[in-house]
Here is the input.
Amino acid sequence: MTYLCVPIAVADAASALDAARAAHAAGADMIEWRVDGLYDATPESARAVERLCRESPLPCILTCRAHDEGGDAPAGAPLDDDERLDLYERCIASDHPPRCIDVELATLQRTPSARARLQRALDAADPQRRPSVIVSTHDFQSRPRDLTRRLLALRDEPLAHIIKIAHRARSLRDNLELFDILRERDRPTIALAMGEFGLMSRVLAPKFGAFLTFAALAPSEATAPGQPTLHDLLRLYRFRAIDRETSVYGVVGWPVAHSISPRVHNAAFSVRGAERNAVYLPLPVPPEWEHCKATLGALLDDPHLQLQGLSVTIPHKEHLVRLARERGWTIDPDAARIGAANTLTKSPTPHPTPPSASSKSLPLSSSAASPSPTPPSGTGVPPVSSQSLSPSPPKILNTDAPAAATCLRDTLDDLREKRIAVLGAGGVARAVADALAHAGAIILIANRTHARAEQLARDLRETLPSAARADINVATLDSIPSAALHACVNCTPIGMTGGPAPDASPIDIAALARTSPGAVVFDTVYAPLDTPMLRAARAAGLPTIDGLAMFARQAALQYEAWTNEPAPEGLYDRLARE
Here is the structure.
């Protein structure tokens, strides 16, 4: 079992205990008392810490973090190692000691007396209440260059019943190294990545047998960057259901923080219950091609991650097709023609050898408490033979195209000979223009960079019969409002939260309404749902289609591609709008 631990940065004991009781009620397994902001080496503050341990509603970890590894400094004066060791000795000897204490590897290395002091205190403690020692190392800036050396030192540390490694991830790929550390553990281990790239390590901790993962009661109460909330881990990601066999899915893009895909797809997986053992994660990948190539390649090639499917959004839809061609994956004919894909699916592969017995967790209840465990012998997980795995090549497809066409058919009925402007020239625009052109519409492409609009038009004409090629034209964004149109589709990030112009509309909608009364205004942006473009369209009396309509349809098609079964009727539209 991987425990859910809520860290509480303590300012005063009474408020901290209230927070701990709230964490208990919300489903936490453990509490970490971060007392470096409370304890100032005075008897009064020491008694307050003892109270926390005595009245804790859950098994607790006592942490008085060193200032150089992220600890607070009471009254602006960081504690020295001996002052922090005084507190640990006192609490170990108390009638209600913590379940664990956390001491930094660096503290043991730089303070000659630290190891002996802690060992004497542990030896003198009641064996039935003796705390376990977490020996930890942290880097809030990046992956430490000496990570391997630190790991070896942690494993060689005789005081370490549990080891903890936490560092800021440079990319999603850093998570894979931490998962390897968990798989090869020789004792209970915590391995976490911090920052925007680190969520994967926290959500998938039970898949790789971590001792615990941390979750904040609220975003404002996180004690490390990128720490998720307890609510999100339990409700959004269904943390208790994640195990070694869980398949992983996710949305790749930059940015992805605004994406509702994790909420919607995880809810859809839960509707199917135990038969769909899967979790869906946001996967931020910086916009450059090199990042996309390196990160997707590493995630898909890792035999232990079991990455089975991806949604791919801005700006990587065209990158996905390029990567598929380089790696010889299967490309759906529509995606190949469009030159952009938003969906990747991969057949399951046999899972590698299970973890060794050294992954056993420590008991948490006070009645089950036992002397601090001796690290078991053995070298961890045996290597996996490449012959034991049969990876199948991924397949990519485009579900944006049929979703967009269906949305417009619901309003315009027949798309043949309808004059439709497509704003943008990226992956979404390619999909929408292709679907509409092959349905017989007359397409007008406009983009901020005119050359890209021209290129899209040329590419699209090459896929059409010669008689239909004259129906593909290019215009400037400024000229679109003066065109006579049946519909206008925004495929740019203008108006998107976190995008380049969140408060703008790509064109003058009031002018469009004067030229094309009754034209349908379709914005593929769904965050926010009520974009500036749609607000202007409603104010001008024009019919609208919001981004969730297309999102729900393309997401349902993704579900069908991943699972080979139809999406529950109406489920995705309902989930997207909740």
